[in-house]
Known about the structure:
The protein is α/β, with parallel strands linked by helices. The chain contains 14 helices and 20 strands. Strand 11 and strand 12 (about 330-335) form a beta hairpin.
Amino acid sequence: MGARAMFRSLASSLITLFIVILAGVMLLFVTKGSADLEFKRVAMDGDRATQTVIAEWMEKNKPKTETVAMEEPVVSDEPKVVAGDGPKVVLWISIPGFRGDYIENSDTPFFDRMISEGAATTKLRPNFPCLTFPAHASLATGTLVDTHGIPLDRFRTEGGEIVDQPLDQSLLRAEPIWTTATRQGIRTLVHDWPLSQKQGENPTAYFLDSHDPALTDQQRLDALWEAWSNDKDEKKLRLLMVRLNGLLDAGMKNGPRETGTYKAVGELDTLLGEFFKKVEEKWADLAPEKGGLSVIVTTDHGLVDLDKNINLPQLLGDDLMKNLDVVAHDAVGHLFFKDLPENEGQAKIVIDNLDGELRKRIYFRTLTQEELPEDWAYHAKDRIGDRVLVLKNGYAFTDATASEPVFDPGEGPGLFGGYGYPVETSIRMSGQAIIWGYPESPASGDLGEINFQKFHATVCKLLGIQPAEGAVTETLPVN
């Protein structure tokens, strides 16, 4: 038999055998069912799991790429500001006694940032007198003493009452910015601005009932933050005003050019930096939609080194004082005639004698109401004395007494800074002003020499409202 015939015969036999076996298995399924059948896979030598084979194939055939080192994401400590070109929120901070040279002599990174990003001047020129209450009244109303009617920190009213650092807004004869804003629909907070505590018509959303001179600047900022951050009104606060007294206290206690005062400047810088970090972090909750922040920092006056205190009644003596009432504060004193003879001629003799004695004193100028310089605008006659005394630089009127009527600061209340002097006689009465904000400042560059009256109108412009009647309408250069 040939090879081919043998192969065909073998193949035929194998096929026949396979058919017989398959027929038997099928017969078994038919006759017995599949319940007792069990199939098992028997591994052969070299067998591997399917998952292993697939994994090895994918690893071998994956596309080749270059390995690129990924940089760690940069996490900034700076808060993300949510602000834009929507309605402006104005925060006005008054820092009494903030001399124009304080920043250059102190460590102030936050003030430096404000100045570099915004606008500033060291030549904020106060109007006469350079005292806290008249200056704050001029800042808030855009007017001078002859209009707003606040001549001193302590003064005699038209009814003869002596008021000392008064709280009653009704003493103002011009409308302050917090009332102007509220009247025109701007929700406002005002903390400790002079004469803001006892409000009448159109009261602000938040104000204080009293003034606590013992509060620290930290406590004042905390109170502002608590009121602002907890305000739940849908109409957001858009004007906030606060006075911080710590720097003035330091300058008065240490003197304006002492290490302790410069240290206080740095401490205030730190407090404000921390405060504004919180403001930026919470800005989306504090501001109107897309609202931007405008910050205005002003002062009421600078300071000079105090050389001598003067007790005016003691200096004048009992003989003169029997015809005088005295209201004196820091560098300015008012004398009101009293108990004059009814006879006009005799009364003139008494007045001439008083004037002669006053002009013998070398420490101050004595001015009648008619002699007051016109540019002082110091003509609220029913609150201005019959004679106005203006001290020389470095002298201050005080109620304290010593063995002599003129005495060193250390013998009196222990204060070493003085204020109230006309700017033209003491450039140190000039102070610091800063305009800043975010996402951008509404002003930039050097503001140059500016006065108080423009701030009322400037704040009105930032808020989009009209200045009060009688206020200066010219603004500082803001957007």
